[in-house]
Each structure stands twice: as structure tokens, then as C-alpha cells.
Amino acid sequence: MSITQLFSVVQSNNTDLFQSILKTIKKVSGKESNLLLFFASINGNRDMCQLILKMGRCDINYMLAGAAKGGHIDLCKLSRKLGAYDYDIMIYCAAWGGQVELCHLARKWGRWGKLNFINYNRMLYGATRGGYPNIAQLARQWGAKKINKMLYWSVQYGQLEMRHLAVQWGAKDTYKLYQGLKTKKE
Fold first, then answer.
1. Yes or no: is domain 87-186 CATH 1.25.40.20?
2. Strand, coil or helix: what is 159?
3. Which has the closest alpha carbon to 147: 160, 161, 132, 136?
4. Could you tell me how many helices (H) and strands (E) the chain has, helices first?
5. Which of 135, 60, 126, 62 shows the shortest CA–CA distance to 101?
6. pTM (two decimals)
7. What are the pLDDT digits (tens) for 114-147?
């Protein structure tokens, strides 16, 4: 069995098959373990996440990121309890997945007194990639300023509505992407 098959099993949420395949694979790299953990947490499969964590060589922040994208607050809380701390990636993935509640939670966890350790431009990037104008607006309210980059990201990910929003907010086409660019939706 290959690592590719292991990824398929993680996507199918079959923990029994995962355990049996894992016995036949000699080595799983840290990068592969992190990706497995990310996808298992997007699916919200706590048992699969625990199996992957037992393999070792995992960065718990991948579980936080996947859980945020998938909207699984229980796994976000568990990953934090286990030592996850990257709330920038959490807010990015929550925005990418359209998870407003988890954006608020990442903001709360990323604050320490009056200090704020969250980069709201990452949230804007996630919202643009996922196509969530309401989350992009929230990111702007909280301090995101990279509107020109938003225009670039919207073109990169084919998010027509987000392109129009970036231009409406005053984005300058510094990347020469928007001018003359039309899609089938337009």
C-alpha cells in the first residue's frame, strides 16, 4: 500500500482500514503526517486525528487549521488543549471554509490583553480564496488592508464576486490582472 492510498482512507474516514494499512507502510514523513492530520480534521474525524497523532512527527497546528476549515469547534478546542497556537493559520482556514464563528474564536484566542497577534490580511486572503464576501468585510472591519492583494487573490482563485468587491473597495490593478479580464459569468 502507498501513502496515496492512506490519504484516500483518511478521506473516507475508515479508521480500521487506516490502522491496517499503516502497518504495511514502513515510514510516513512529517510532511505526510501533517497533511493526513489536516484532511482528517477537515472531516471532523476525531478518532482518525488521534491515530495520526500517535504516528508521531505531526505539527498539531495542522489539526487546528483543518478543524477550522471544516467548522469543527470541538477539534479546534482539542488541538489548542494539545498545544496548537497558530491562530493566524486558524483564522485563514476558518475564513477559507466560510466559518464565521471560528474566525471570531481565532480572534479571541489570538489576543492577549490589548495585544493582538492576528494578521487579518490572512483572514482576508482565506475569505477571498473561499469566496465569502461577508467574512472579507469582517476582516476589513478588524483591520485587513491588503485590498490590492485581494484583487490579485480573487483572480488567482477565480472568485468573480470577490474581484468586484475588491474594486468596489478601491483596489488598484497593480498586477494588471483585472483590466480586460472577463469570465464566462460576466
1. yes
2. coil
3. 136
4. 12, 2
5. 135
6. 0.86
7. 666 789 999 999 999 999 999 999 999 999 999 9
